[in-house]
Amino acid sequence: MVPFGNCNCLLLSLVCGNNIQLLSMKEAQIEITIPHLFRCPISLDLFEDPVTLSTGQTYDRSSIEKWFSAGNLTCPVTMQKLRDASIVPNHTLRHLIDQWLQLGPQFGNSSTIDHLAALKHSLESPELENKLQALEKIRVLSDEYCSFRKSFFHQLSFLPLLLELVFGSEFTKCDTKLTELALSCIIKLLPLVSLESLNMIKDESKLATFLLLFEKGTSSVKTSLCHLIDSTASPQTEEVCHMLGHSQKLLREIVVLVRQGSEVSKVAIKAMLSLCSLQSNRDNLVRAGAIDGVIIYISGCETRQKNLALLAMAIIKNLLVLESAKEALVNHPYGVATLVKMVFRVCNQECSESAVGILAIICRDFGRAREEAIGAGVLTQLLFLLQSQCGPKTKTKARMLLKLLRSKWIEEPKQV
């Protein structure tokens, strides 16, 4: 006979057995779906108090302290000997984990998938209004969802669908709002997916739509398209970059945007730099007026836009492998003078180094460039630069340019 107390326990276990089993299954599902980056490499559990070592590896505080207390003086992952055993709280990771927990750790949440599947169905609807409503929701969700949630968009193949909507349908040619919304969603999703999806633009009809949108589109559309062009500077999308770089019409449009000095110009500069990363595009860029556009952009750059000025000078350096680019720079009414002004940049030594390097190239080959540079005060600028706290690499280049400009025995340069 089973004692009454034990009977109660037995009855309880019989009644609750299924629930306990379901609970353990649910816990196991949550355990499996913890993002890899949210697990401590030592305990393999969700971080509670993430801290980072001097090696850059992050561990849970309790786990790494146990490791040290056991007499270990190495990083558990890299096995590097630690000269500095200090630990720094990783507040960014802690914030991401907190956000993840608030949204619900069930990564495979069926309600989320069902909701996005419904949005995808609306995008495939022939009704324009359904598409617009779906795009509005996608834009909001892509802002609100953290990165691991956004991957649902990738799993459900949203990007190819959105690209097809923009470049493969007739809607974009007659509805500006749809085009702007769809492109905005594409740009938000792009960092989370494989860039190979962009290869669909290689299709002749889609490429024609791309070029038409760039020519006729609004400022918002052109900004998004410049972001897309910037994304093509990768091995996976090299062919797309090549095809875009061989459209003189597109390149001239980009040059016009760069010359404007507007908000769109900032993205256009990045697009141009991506295009000139391919050697096959450089001659076309020079013929489209890239040197003129970039010089105008640099001359209008404010101090706070120093990084963009650096990107602009990177374009010039890439193009200067061509004689036509050198001639375009020297022949520009204030090309040399603009570069001279960039020689001594207290706030940005990288700009100084780039400007000195570019001037060295054209002054070596063109006597006129040397005369203009000296007339624009380059000698004074170089002396100021050498007296500043700039790096040794910049000073070496500055001395070389100074020697080149002062020398009376250099080979006679060719004239333009």
TrEMBL record:
<feature type="domain" description="U-box">
    <location>
        <begin position="33"/>
        <end position="107"/>
    </location>
</feature>
<dbReference type="InterPro" id="IPR045185">
    <property type="entry name" value="PUB22/23/24-like"/>
</dbReference>
<dbReference type="GO" id="GO:0016567">
    <property type="term" value="P:protein ubiquitination"/>
</dbReference>
<keyword id="KW-0732">Signal</keyword>
<dbReference type="Pfam" id="PF25598">
    <property type="entry name" value="ARM_PUB"/>
</dbReference>
<dbReference type="Pfam" id="PF04564">
    <property type="entry name" value="U-box"/>
</dbReference>
<dbReference type="InterPro" id="IPR045210">
    <property type="entry name" value="RING-Ubox_PUB"/>
</dbReference>
<keyword id="KW-0833">Ubl conjugation pathway</keyword>
<dbReference type="InterPro" id="IPR003613">
    <property type="entry name" value="Ubox_domain"/>
</dbReference>
<dbReference type="InterPro" id="IPR016024">
    <property type="entry name" value="ARM-type_fold"/>
</dbReference>
<feature type="signal peptide">
    <location>
        <begin position="1"/>
        <end position="17"/>
    </location>
</feature>
<keyword id="KW-0808">Transferase</keyword>
<protein>
    <recommendedName>
        <fullName>U-box domain-containing protein</fullName>
        <ecNumber>2.3.2.27</ecNumber>
    </recommendedName>
</protein>
<comment type="function">
    <text>Functions as an E3 ubiquitin ligase.</text>
</comment>
<comment type="pathway">
    <text>Protein modification; protein ubiquitination.</text>
</comment>
<dbReference type="InterPro" id="IPR013083">
    <property type="entry name" value="Znf_RING/FYVE/PHD"/>
</dbReference>
<dbReference type="GO" id="GO:0061630">
    <property type="term" value="F:ubiquitin protein ligase activity"/>
</dbReference>
<dbReference type="InterPro" id="IPR058678">
    <property type="entry name" value="ARM_PUB"/>
</dbReference>
<dbReference type="InterPro" id="IPR011989">
    <property type="entry name" value="ARM-like"/>
</dbReference>
